Amino acid sequence: MSDRPNTPLLDQIARPADLKGLSDTQLAQVAHELRQETIAAVSVTGGHLGAGLGVVELTTALHAVFDTPRDKVIWDVSHQCYPHKILTGRRDRIRTLRMKDGLSGFTKRSESSYDPFGAAHSSTSISAALGFSVARDLGGVIPEGIGDAIAVIGDGSMSAGMAFEAMNNAGHLGKRLIVILNDNEMSIAPPVGALSSYLSRLYAGEPFQELKAAAKGAVSLLPEPFREGAKRAKDMLKGMAVGGTLFEALGFSYLGPIDGHDMDQLLPVLRTVKARATGPILIHVLTKKGKGYAPAEAALDKGHATAKFDMMTGEQKKAPSNAPSYTSVFGNELVKLAAKDDKICAVTAAMPDGTGLNLMAERYPSRTFDVGIAEQHGVTFAAALAAGGMKPFCAMYSTFLQRGYDQVVHDVAIQRLPVRFAIDRAGLVGADGATHAGSFDIGFMANLPGMVVMAAADEAELAHMVATAAAHDNGPIAFRYPRGEGEGVEMPETPEVLKIGKGRMIQEGKRVALLSFGTRLGEVRKAAEALAAKGITPTIADARFAKPLDRDLILQLATVHEALITIEEGAVGGFGSHVAQLLAEAGVFDSGLKFRSMVLPDTFIDQASPADMYEAAAMNAPQIETKVLEVLGVATIGEKRA
Q1: Residues 512-527: pLDDT tens digits?
Q2: Contact 451, 475 (CB under 8 A)
Q3: What does the alpha-carbon distance between residue 439 and residue 627 come to, in Å, rounded to a whole number?
Q4: Which end of the chain, N or C, is less surrounded by CB atoms within 10 Å?
Q5: Rounded Cα distance, 284 and 277, in Å
Q6: Residues tagged active-site
Q7: For 298-320, how does the pLDDT look when each residue is reduced to its tens digit (9 = 90+)?
């Protein structure tokens, strides 16, 4: 298998309209070639493989039957959109996926008119499809027009409350709307919850074989839709008490389940729905994540997210690291603490592996809870665990915790409940881009009364902070850490419980003080080395805490230096803003202190490597060095010695 598979029919498809003249047999061949091209592309770029492979036939059928971009295909989460991008005029750039200046790994409105609604978080598609449907009926005008709206949502995403809120509203409004439940029994982690059990009952064991046969039989009658044959299949489903009664109770007509890899089922059903649907309809499609690529099918996560890989073997090409990842440090430290304290428990929202809680789940399954894609529920659940005398760690990516913010305020902070928030993927994250950047949690956590907010400068500091959080029972506490590997520092045998609100001095210097919060400390040290060659030796301190601030340390730095610069991996309104408030209220600026705050710029930064993203944010060592020289009045590097 070469990097470029043989795809004679796909080569003729420049846009979805080119599918219109093909026979059903040719469309099946396009799907086969599309799968090969997707595997080949992701082997070069890395990225989300399994989800896209699961919807290759569905993607082909949707674009063949509907009239995109006038008809809106809205991919939930949209990590399964690579085949969609290949069919919609972006094949020539598909090997730039998730790279700097390349295609996004998700749908993106600014990238193509075939991406009507951007996504990367789950469970938004039905709300968006309903919005397009109502806009259409109210006479909304956009360049490509508005036809049908089709939401494609996975069974994992369907577990989130927002999907049901949207279905409830759609059923009430009664607008023509198509929801395709892409049921692969496999979100990122094994799906959890009663809904998953309900869906699996729809095709458990022998009855499903009968249903599948009935569906195929009904399909032949579908050109005369919902007449006797299709009605019989639907009634049979209902009669078996495993059919779409839940969805029909929400006001949706239910059709399915059908085999999402069988074009002989997909195409007639979609054509019939397009021709005859009036109100909201849900098509239940069964697919297999990683379908058609043996290494993905064999993987536990079905090839959910991969590095670059060898197409023949599926072996991923990951660079070896000398340092543990921050995520694994958190997971390991939590397991050690849980061994000593049976009140420690952990909550995550569909990301046990991503947050390192798989280690806890293996060792202490009764104290580890994956609540599914339900961050709001997860936070409130953790709050009540705390109220019930447990010591919950609520481990979520920064960008996903945003979804549970009202619960952080209302259910945790106001009640001063000791929930420990482990905030993974803090700062800029690389290939996933702006949608997954942990840019805002310092600001939105540190403005809450009684919330303790910490950031680890390296993996040893993270170990101390996990221990500190476990020991903290007087209200909520949060600690943040980035994606990727640590600094390679020596790990403590017994992590210490830090004194709340106390930072640490790293090096004593003169004239300018650099106050770092988080893992930019490594870049601060590099900048200090470069400055030393120019005769400037800055003082360096690690704040450790954004709340409460180390008032004594900050005022001391402000008093004995002519300039103070804060550095953080977060948006404006975070650590630097709190420091500025403290200095202003203490009257420090009245005596002429020069103060600067290095934060992420007021823009969403597109995907690139983390180093490139921080370069774009002007937060690497050279920019820190330049900031010091500017604030000290050294106009040009090397022009004069301080």
Answers
A1: 999 999 999 999 999 9
A2: yes
A3: 21
A4: N
A5: 15
A6: 289, 375, 403
A7: 887 888 878 888 888 888 887 76
